[in-house]
Design a protein that fits this description.
five-stranded mixed β-sheet; about 600 residues; single chain; alpha+beta
C-alpha cells in the first residue's frame, strides 16, 4: 500500500504521462470490478436450468459437472433452440421462460442434430454463484492488480505498457465472463477484450523483455487484424450466431498461434540473443509460460475441439502463473527494470565522464591561473636576456663588417665575447621554448589513444613549470630510480603531479623542502611527494578528497578530488599521510599494466 501510494504521488508531483495512464487504468479496473460484483449478486435466487447459456443461447464452458447440464452431457457451443416447443430468440427471453416453472423441455442443437430433453428448473444459490464467479473474478482482479503494479514502477521501463495492456485485456475478459453467461450487461466488454488478446500478446512479444528491432510493423499488423476481425465477431454474436461461432474459433486459433510464436521467440532468445541479460530473462520466464498458458491452452483445446466436459472456470486461475512470474520478477529481481537500469547507468556514466572532464578542465584552468604570473615573469626574463644582448650583437656584427676600421685589440675582444653573448641568447631562447612546450603539453587537447609515458619525463616537465612558483624559498630534492614506462596520457599525468606539487608548495610557510621520489617494480610504480609544511588536521584529512572542499581562501576544492579520480581511472590509488607541524607525504601508486584509462 505504501509502495503504491508513493508511486502514485511521485507521478502526480512530477506531472508524468504515466500518472494519466495509471489513472485511466485504475478507473477501468475499479469500474469493471464493481460492475462484475454488482451483476453477480443480482443472479442469486434467480431460476436456472442447470447450465448458463450465452446471450445468443450457446452453452458456455463455465459450469459444474454436478449441475443438470453436466448430467445431460451438454457440450460447449450446443445451442438452445426452444423451450416447451416455443422458439426463443436470446438469453433474456430464455430466463423469462424459466420464471415460475419447475421443469421444462428444451430443444438443443448439438452440431447438426437437434434433440429434446427435460430439465429441472432450480434456483441459483450463493454457493452456485460462488463456484463459478469466484475463480473468474479472482483471476480477473489479479490480472488487473498485476498490471496496475507494473504501471506504478517509476520511471516506467520499456515494455511495461504492453504488459499492462495484456493484463487489462485478460482481466476484463475474466471479470465479465460470469455476466456473459447470466445478465448480459458486459457482453461487449468480453467480446472486445477477447478479440484484442492475440494482438496484445504479439505486442508483448515484440516489447518484452527487450524491444525487438526485427519486427517494427508486427505490432500494427496484429492490432489491425484483431480490429478487422472484431467488427464481424461482435456484430454476428447477436445477429447470426451460427457464423459467430466460426469467428470465435478463428480468434482462438489466432491466439493459439500467437502463444506458440511467443514460445518459439522466447526459446530462441534464451539461446541466441546477443544480450546476456535478455537470455537470462527469457530462461526464467519460459517455464511459467509453458505451465500457465500451455496447460490452459491444452485444456481449452480439449473443450473446443474434442468436446470434453471440463469446467473452464477452474482452469482460469492457472493462467495467472505467467503474469505472477513477471510481476514477482519485476518487483523482486527487477527484470522489467533491467533495460531502464542499464540505460540509466549508461546515461549516468556519460554524465559522470562529462562531469569528470569538466572538473579536470576547471582544475586545469585553476592551475594555469596559478602558473600564469610565474610563466609570464619567466618568459619575460628569457626574452629580456635576448633583447638586452641584441644591441651588443649588432655592434659586434658591425665591428666585424668594418673590420678594416677597427683596431686589432677591439676585434680580438669581439671574437672573445661573441661566443658567450650567443650562448646567453641561446640559453634565454631555449628557456622560453622549454616553458612554452611544457605549458603546451599540459594544456593541449586530449588524444583519443594513449601511449607509453615516462613518469620521470613528466615530473621533470612539471617541475620546470613550477620553478618560478617555488622561487628561492623552496628547494626541490629529486630521487628518480630506473622504472618502466606506463600507458597513459601525458597531459593527465602532468595534471596529477601539478596538483600535488602545488599543494605541497602551498603547505609550506616561509622556507621549506619538497622531496620527489620515483621507485617501484615491474608491476607497480610509486611516485612519492613529501613536504615539511604545516600538515593537515585530522578533521580535514577525512574530507580533503571531497569535490569543492577547501581550506584556502581562493581555492576551488577541485585539485585533490580530480587527482584522485584520475589516479583511480588508471587503476591506481592515492595515499595521503599527514601530521600537524611535520608535513605531508603523498604516495601515488600506478600499475604498469594500465589498459583502461579514463
Amino acid at each position: 500500500m505504501i509502495f503504491a501510494l508513493t508511486s502514485f504521488l511521485n507521478m502526480f508531483r512530477k506531472g508524468k504521462s504515466g500518472f494519466v495512464l495509471l489513472t485511466i487504468y485504475g478507473v477501468i479496473a475499479i469500474t469493471l470490478s464493481s460492475l462484475s460484483l454488482y451483476f453477480a449478486f443480482q443472479t442469486i435466487g434467480k431460476p436456472f436450468a442447470g447450465f448458463l447459456p450465452f446471450q445468443n443461447l450457446y452453452v458456455g464452458a463455465f459450469t459444474q459437472s454436478s449441475w443438470e447440464g453436466g448430467k445431460q452431457n451438454l457440450k460447449y457451443h450446443d445451442r438452445v433452440q426452444s423451450i416447451d416447443g416455443k422458439i426463443v430468440r436470446d438469453g433474456n427471453e430464455f430466463h423469462q421462460h424459466l420464471e415460475g416453472k419447475s421443469e421444462i423441455e428444451l430443444g438443443i442443437l448439438s452440431g447438426i442434430e437437434e434433440k429434446l430433453s427435460q430439465f429441472s428448473v432450480e434456483t441459483l444459490l450463493p454457493n452456485d454463484v460462488f463456484v463459478i464467479f469466484a475463480p473468474l473474478f479472482g483471476t480477473g482482479l489479479a490480472f488487473l492488480v498485476i498490471g496496475l503494479l507494473a504501471l506504478m514502477v517509476h520511471p516506467a521501463p520499456a515494455g511495461v505498457v504492453s504488459f499492462a495492456t495484456f493484463c487489462l485485456c485478460l482481466g476484463a475478459y475474466f471479470l465479465s465472463a460470469y455476466d456473459f453467461h447470466t445478465t448480459y450487461h458486459l457482453v461487449p466488454v468480453l467480446l472486445f477484450s477477447f478479440a484484442l488478446v492475440p494482438a496484445v500478446t504479439i505486442d508483448l512479444i515484440v516489447s518484452f523483455p527487450k524491444k525487438m528491432g526485427h519486427f517494427p510493423k508486427l505490432r500494427g499488423v496484429a492490432y489491425g487484424f484483431s480490429g478487422l476481425m472484431a467488427i464481424p465477431y461482435i456484430w454476428l454474436f447477436s445477429k447470426d450466431s451460427s457464423r459467430w461461432v466460426w469467428f470465435e474459433y478463428a480468434f482462438f486459433l489466432y491466439l493459439s498461434m500467437a502463444y506458440l510464436f511467443w514460445l518459439v521467440v522466447m526459446a530462441h532468445r534464451s539461446l541466441r540473443d546477443q544480450d546476456d541479460t535478455v537470455r537470462r530473462q527469457c530462461r526464467i520466464l519460459l517455464i511459467p509460460m509453458i505451465l500457465a498458458f500451455g496447460f490452459s491452452f491444452i485444456v481449452t483445446w480439449m473443450v473446443f475441439v474434442f468436446d470434453w466436459a471440463i469446467p473452464l472456470n477452474w482452469v482460469a486461475p492457472f493462467s495467472l502463473v505467467f503474469p505472477l512470474a513477471i510481476g514477482y520478477a519485476m518487483l523482486r529481481q527487477n527484470l522489467f527494470l533491467v533495460d531502464h537500469l542499464e540505460q540509466q547507468i549508461h546515461e549516468r556514466t556519460n554524465v559522470l565522464k562529462k562531469t569528470q572532464a569538466e572538473l579536470f578542465e576547471a582544475s586545469k584552468l585553476a592551475s594555469v591561473g596559478t602558473l600564469a604570473a610565474g610563466m609570464a615573469h619567466e618568459i619575460g626574463n628569457a626574452m629580456h636576456l635576448i633583447s638586452s644582448n641584441l644591441p651588443i650583437l649588432r655592434k659586434y656584427t658591425n665591428s666585424l663588417i668594418n673590420s678594416g676600421r677597427e683596431s686589432a685589440q677591439e676585434l680580438e675582444f669581439v671574437k672573445e665575447d661573441m661566443p658567450e653573448l650567443l650562448s646567453n641568447m641561446e640559453r634565454g631562447a631555449q628557456r622560453a621554448q622549454d616553458i612554452t612546450m611544457d605549458l603546451k603539453n599540459f594544456s593541449k587537447p586530449e588524444k583519443a589513444s594513449f601511449q607509453r609515458v615516462s613518469l620521470q619525463h613528466v615530473l621533470e616537465g612539471t617541475l620546470r613549470l613550477l620553478k618560478i612558483e617555488f622561487g628561492s624559498n623552496i628547494s626541490v630534492v629529486t630521487k628518480f630510480s630506473s622504472i618502466p614506462e606506463v600507458m597513459g596520457s601525458e597531459r593527465q599525468l602532468h595534471q596529477i603531479f601539478l596538483n600535488l606539487l602545488l599543494n605541497a608548495k602551498q603547505a609550506i610557510e616561509g622556507k621549506g623542502e619538497i622531496r620527489v621520489s620515483i621507485y617501484g617494480s615491474d608491476a607497480e610504480v610509486v611516485v612519492e611527494i613529501q613536504d615539511d609544511g604545516r600538515g593537515i588536521s585530522p578533521e580535514h584529512q577525512a574530507r580533503i578528497l571531497e569535490p569543492f572542499f577547501t581550506t584556502k581562501e581562493r581555492g576551488t576544492g577541485l585539485g585533490l578530488s580530480v587527482t584522485k579520480g584520475l589516479v583511480e581511472a588508471y587503476g591506481g590509488k592515492l595515499a595521503i599521510e599527514s601530521e600537524i607541524g611535520k608535513g605531508t607525504n603523498v604516495k601515488v601508486f600506478f600499475p604498469t599494466d594500465i589498459k583502461n584509462v579514463a
